[in-house]
């Protein structure tokens, strides 16, 4: 009987450790300058993956979105400094939901410049979400360490305020939750979405940046070229409300 109880305890321990390991940051190299990390947040009792990316420049690191899991705010900074020998100097969040903006105020407290669009600021105030220190009203270009970073508002889709981030040198597009992974079979959270406008916004995006090398999505795995964008467009066209 004692052996059975011990075996059950060990199985529970292994299960808990597996969940704990899944909540850690997982890094993926896109190229020498661009990296994606995945963190996990409990959703309906299970760890759910969320992607963010960052750019390494001569003058520091730029984050695109923040971790969803608040326990990973500081570990992300520590990991980046250990991996690249550089500090994070700027963070841009692509929309007001927690899986994009949860760490804004924490990073601001660490002296990191934080930015969102004016639309995101307004929605963050309305929904009592985390807010950036600075805002931009129109599509904006940041230049850090000689690297050009472009923000672009394609129109409504996943949310009223969703923007994307384009790195012309790397031909890398960070789509956040505006874009869905080819692994996704639905549009996800639609609580603030405008599905009827989403397809036009996607087409506008494709015209703006016609030849991306890699596209990162907000959840699950991104893809080379336009696969994720075309998949999102298909999901939008196939969408039928309950």
TrEMBL record:
Entries under InterPro entries matching the protein: BlaB//VIM/IMP-1, Metallo-B-lactamas, NDM-1-like, RibonucZ/Hydroxyglut_hydro
Leader sequence segment: 1-20
Pfam families reported in the protein's UniProt record: Lactamase_B
Keywords: Antibiotic resistance, Hydrolase, Metal-binding, Periplasm, Signal, Zinc
Main localization of the protein described in the UniProt heading: periplasm
Broad enzyme group: hydrolase
UniProt subcellular location: Periplasm
Residue ranges of domain Metallo-beta-lactamase in the record: 50-219
UniProt-recorded Gene Ontology molecular function terms: beta-lactamase activity
Cofactor(s) this protein cannot do without: Zn(2+)
NCBIfam families documented for this protein: bla_class_B_core (NF012229), bla_subclass_B1 (NF033088), blaB-IND-MUS (NF012146)
Subunit structure as annotated in this protein's UniProt entry: Monomer.
Protein known as: beta-lactamase
Organism: Flavobacterium suzhouense
Name of encoding gene: bla
